[in-house]
Amino acid sequence: MYLSEAPLSLDALLAEREHPDCGGLAIFGGAVRDHHQGRAVSRLRYTAYAPLAERRMRDIEAIARDKFGAPYCRVVHRVGLLEIGDVAIYCVTRAPHRAEAFAACRWIVDEVKHTVPIWKEEFYADGTSAFVQGCCIRNDLEHSHA
Amino acid sequence: MYLSEAPLSLDALLAEREHPDCGGLAIFGGAVRDHHQGRAVSRLRYTAYAPLAERRMRDIEAIARDKFGAPYCRVVHRVGLLEIGDVAIYCVTRAPHRAEAFAACRWIVDEVKHTVPIWKEEFYADGTSAFVQGCCIRNDLEHSHA
Amino acid sequence: MNIRFEFFGVMQRLAGGAALEVELKRSVTIADALDELAALRPELRLELTRCAVASGDAIVLRRDGIADGSTLALLPPVAGG
Amino acid sequence: MNIRFEFFGVMQRLAGGAALEVELKRSVTIADALDELAALRPELRLELTRCAVASGDAIVLRRDGIADGSTLALLPPVAGG
Question: What is the ipTM of this complex?
């Protein structure tokens, strides 16, 4: 499971497997903040293009396992309406030592933010809303026509 | 609570407070591995000098809050006999953004390992045991007589 | 040929809907198809330059060809996490 | 004067116990006290050079003075986490 309409469960991710060879467990959780760039945020909506999002999240996990030597790498992202304090993303990594676990965790979260087709719409206390400026994921800008 | 004979509860640490201004949650867990420097480990015993250990862990949290701008920093360490897979240390940090949360978490874990009077005795599959080589915490080596 | 465009993120707001089926007259490549879409819906033109285009679970390039009956997902800059 | 030494980590194994009460003859500083302990228990001498010394929740230095009835915790290199 990569995308979830239901609240994310850290316990479920932690229970997925036993890891007697992994001494380091790193976790990142990204929660909804009550403000962004000076504006009061009341809630968020995340949407995703699921076919590519799930494929990329799976690929990111696999790359991280190799790149950092972290045998267990998992990342999940919430979609739908979220309230302040709700967790939008959890990443859990396990590696023999803490350095690799931290590095893998950080890298995965950055990759998901920068490359996975997920969008964040902020709803403000004043009743307006806006999509948060993001990262362009075109990989053909040299060949651009449109 | 800084030192615990009972198994550490991550849920308890996560529930300690609400943090509407903190979007980044970083967690580190250090678990007992089944081997160390090529030897098969069957269990560990952690012991501590509690008066100084607890004071230092409290100080490390306070320094991390200031140093990294991470309003919530907590670290707990298990003492007593631990089995393979048992968690020896949990560190939980919350900050407005993920960079500070990760940095604070990493720094705290390193500080605890290097400066807090806790000792690790490894019991091997062959029935022997040894204290793990650690970090000297004397701060008066210039004035050393003994 | 008939192409179904699907809109995500801010594209959905700009397009006023989740999808649009269009009969394209002269398109051979993805780039052609986006040009025809922009001609039909000028309000999408600027944001289209920032969109990746996906078909199923893969990104397709502007120079790639298109087939009748395709669905193209238009993916503006992403902001998960 | 009477001093109680408490042993932690590998010091406890070397000393064969958790604590030792000693009547010191000629000690003024912590360094003196550790010298007298090492004279009484030569098997501790090497590891003592790597020990920090604590009194309550504070580290004390080799040059600090000692008082009759003190308890000194001997803390070898640490390895938590």
Answer: 0.90
| Total-model pTM | 0.92
Pick from D70, D78, D77, D79: nearest CA to D34: D70
Q: Kindly list the structural domains of chain D, giving each domain's residue range(s) and its CATH number in brackets, ordered by start.
A: 2-75 (3.10.20.30)
**Helix H or strand E encompassing C39:** helix C30-40
Chain C touching partners, 3 or more CB pairs below 8 A: A
From B119, B135, B133, select the one nearest B44 (Cα to Cα).
B119
Is the pLDDT reported for residue C31 higher than 60?
A: yes
Q: State whether A113 and C80 contact (CB < 8 Å).
A: yes
pLDDT digits (tens, 9 = 90+) for D61-73: 999 999 999 999 9
Q: How far is A144 from chain B (nearest CA, A)?
A: 34
Domain A3-8+21-131 annotated CATH 3.90.1170.40? yes
> Smallest Cα–Cα separation from A139: which of C59, C6, C65, C80?
C59
D38 touches chain B (CB under 8 A): yes
pLDDT band at B69 (very low <50, low <70, confident <90, very high): very high
* D4 CB within 8 Å of a chain B CB: no
Q: Which residues of B touch D57 (CB under 8 A)?
A: 51-52, 54-55
* Domain map (residue ranges) of chain A: 3-8+21-131
